[in-house]
Amino acid sequence: MAIIAVCLAFAFLLSAVGASFHSPAMDYGESTISDIQSYFADGSLTSRQLVSFYLARIQSLNPYLHAVIEVNPDALSDADTADCQRLSGSPLSRGILHGIPILLKDNIVTRDRLNTTAGSLALLGSVVPRDAGVAARLRSAGAIILGKASLSEWAYYRFEDAPSGWSARGGQGINPYVASAGTCGSSSGSAVSAAAGMTAVALGTETHGSIICPASLNSVVGIKPTVGLTSRAGVIPVTPRQDTVGPMARTVADAVAVLEAMVGYDKRDSEATAAAAAFVPEGGYMQFLKEDGLKGKRVGILRKGFFNFVQGSLEKKTLEQHFHVMRKKGAILIDNLEIANASIIQNGAESGEDVAMLAEFKLSVNAYLSELVISPVRSLAEVIAFNNEHKIQEMIEEYGQQRFLDAEKMNGIGRIERAAIKKLGELSENGLEKLMKEKKLDAVVTPNYSCISFLAINGYPGISVPAGYGKSGVPFGICFGGLKGSEPTLIEISYAFEQATKVRKPPLIISAGDLSGR
After folding, report:
1. For 209-230, what is each residue's pLDDT tens digit?
2. pLDDT of 20 strictly over 60
3. What does the H/E/C string look like for 85-129?
4. Which of 95, 109, 354, 504 is buried deepest, with most CB atoms within 10 A?
């Protein structure tokens, strides 16, 4: 403790006189968590230097990419604490995430000097009672909260017509590979920041595609966990029936390291996390990072209605090559499979998902707003009124807030909503669940984000892995999905696929100036 006290006093003195450590010339934009920990161990890198590197990269790239809404003003002092713990040999410094900077999507609350607004001006200045469950777990693991990543406002639930990646606070997020490609989904800033090397890893959330889709389009790994595997306490909600929190990173191993630190029971999200706690394997998830993880796995290829998401011949050719590699690595691929009632599942109005989510959103967001210590708004009705009063800032005249208006008309979970929720369960049971059991599948595989509806409606997990780049350079991914609790199997398959293909490449960016003409 004495060493830590002296170390922190020295760090404070440096800060007081304006001194700071400068990151070495090395570029850490593509470094993995394992790389970083090895640099920490041999003394060639400190957490302060690493945080300084990412802050400088954010300062350089964010004026164009709009991937980060806000950086943590305490990130450097938190890094100093991590460095002191490492220097003193504290047991806290032995974890794989110790001293690692992580960006959180701006709907994951933190009880610090950062705002949590879901990208909306209506929540700017609100004060939360405590850290989100996942944020608290990451801090306990020694991670450094670097800041908040941008997102499609209100997790893309306020409107349908706005471009993905846009929010009133964050502006329009930009794909770092091809600017015109878009960012997709609401966890846009988390995906972009990880892809562009603005953070070691990031957290996203998914209700219906918001991790899988941006991961695919921005060439990063995204893990959508089984609903309840990670706590949603302290996450600005859409619906507790589908909301989940997951990691986004440049490698499967990095994403799994973050997942392992987040999972487990949380009394503030007790029902879901208690049910999912049975799925957490003894010894954690890192043990499933196996290069031979495809061997003997029965993987179903979903084609009809799923390959519509493949844009061109190059993508199709690349996917077929990937399937060939998977077979060579020992996977048993069952081709041309179909899911019963697929067209209904993919249509939210027909499946019942739309009406169920409207009712659940109103209930959930009102509950969240009511628990804030300080807030400019206390209900969905007040959010709507705020938006109407701030038309220029919120671009309300251009994008509107129709979903909010529709949700405000709802009166809880009544007969229609209960019937819709029941229908969603039946569609899942007779769809993906029935197919996987009948064909004895370990996983299904789809291109890009075509799997999202099937994973969303019953809380199933999925992992998106970079799969290639189209003729114009736009990234695309491949998604492995399964039934609840199948993360160990999906990790084995995803990691083995990643190691066998190694297709991901970083975006060709150095500064915002390099991007302005693309």
Report:
1. 999 999 999 999 999 999 999 9
2. no
3. HHHHCCHHHHCCCCCCEEEEECCECCCCCCCCCCCCHHHCCCECC
4. 109
Is residue 328 part of the annotated active site? The answer reads no
Is 210 noted as a catalytic residue in this protein? yes
Q: From the candidates 93, 105, 120, 190, give the one annotated as an active-site residue.
A: 105
* Domains along the chain with CATH numbers: 33-288+449-515 (3.90.1300.10)
State yes or no: is 105 an active-site residue: yes
Find all residues with CB under 8 Å of 493, minimum gap 6, and list them. Answer: 293, 294, 297, 299, 331, 442, 443, 463, 480
Q: Which of 31, 126, 186, 193 is catalytic?
A: 186
- Please report, for residues 32, 94, 301, the alpha-carbon distance to residue 43 in angstroms, rounded to integers and kept in the order given: 17, 15, 47
Average model confidence (pLDDT) for the chain? 93
130 touches 97 (CB < 8 A):
no
Residue type for 517, please? G
pLDDT of residue 312: 78
Give the per-residue pLDDT at 23: 45
The C-alpha atoms of residue 147 and residue 75 are separated, in whole angstroms, by: 8
Report how far apart, in Å, the C-alpha atoms of 486 and of each of 66, 172, 240, 278, 467 are.
Answer: 34, 35, 20, 11, 21
Distance of alpha carbon 40 from alpha carbon 424, whole angstroms: 48
Q: What is the pLDDT of residues 68-111, one digit of tens each?
A: 999 999 999 999 999 999 999 999 999 999 999 999 999 999 99
Distance CA(243)–CA(207), nearest Å, equals 5
136: left (phi over 0), alpha (psi -120 to 50) or beta: alpha
Query: Annotated catalytic residue: which of 93, 167, 190, 210?
Result: 210
